Amino acid sequence: MRILLIEDHRRLAEAIAEGLDREGFGVDVFTTAGDGEAAARTLCYDAIILDLGLPDRDGLCLLKALRVAGSSTPVLILTARDGIDARVSGLDAGADDYLLKPFEMKELAARLRALLRRPGAVLGAVLKAGNVQLDSVGRVVTVNGLPTSIPRREFDVLELLMRRAGQVVTRTALEEKTYGLNDPVLPNALEAAVSRLRKHLPGASAGVSILAMRGVGYLLTEGKS
User: Fold this and answer.
1) Residue 202: which H helix or E strand, with range?
2) Per the domain annotation, does 62 fall within a domain?
3) What does the alpha-carbon distance between residue 43 and residue 2 come to, in Å, rounded to a whole number?
4) Roughly what angle, to the nearest 10 degrees, separates helices 171-178 and 189-203?
5) Running along the chain, 225 residues long, what does each successive block of 10 average in pLDDT?
6) Which residues pair with 97 in a beta bridge?
7) Domain presence at residue 121
8) How much of the chain is helix, strand and coil, in % rounded to 5?
9) Are residues 21 and 47 in the same domain?
10) pTM of the complete model
């Protein structure tokens, strides 16, 4: 799950990114409205965390611009502005949730998961394919009801493939969901992650296969290869 964080307080932004990483989220951080808007328009994020007190433009103006442009990405406002009027203004501008500073990281992560479980959002119900079940909230994969440990990168790849089971998922879509803009990504990093996943699944007796569609991406199907 990729999150866009637009927060101008660098130390806070770094702390949020590290905390959400431990909760299983990948985070891209930007400190200005201009850079954050460019990222939101270029890449596909699962949710946006938006500070209102940005140096180049008020966060509410950025939020309104994203909604006018047609973005339906869930937005959680993170701000020190208290009072009912401030919260109403944020929600009326198109925000999906509102969290006051200071806050606990566990609450921020829980609110993000709640947003992503809403109808039409990225989390939804537990995913199933063959004898494989993936809980994207608890980040647990089970095969025939037995838990199997899958590292974060491989988990993210498997989640997206299971969400689109029976459909080809492009390399670009997988890379955007799995690696952040600032992550050091080697040329064959995605192939390596898929290769490790393909070795792990048969070892766990998983009844699914990952097929490589040369030059396009990957396809998850039920049944062993």
Assistant:
1) helix 189-203
2) yes
3) 10
4) 90
5) 91 94 88 94 88 92 92 89 81 90 92 78 71 84 91 89 87 80 71 91 88 90 76
6) 76
7) no
8) 40, 25, 35
9) yes
10) 0.67
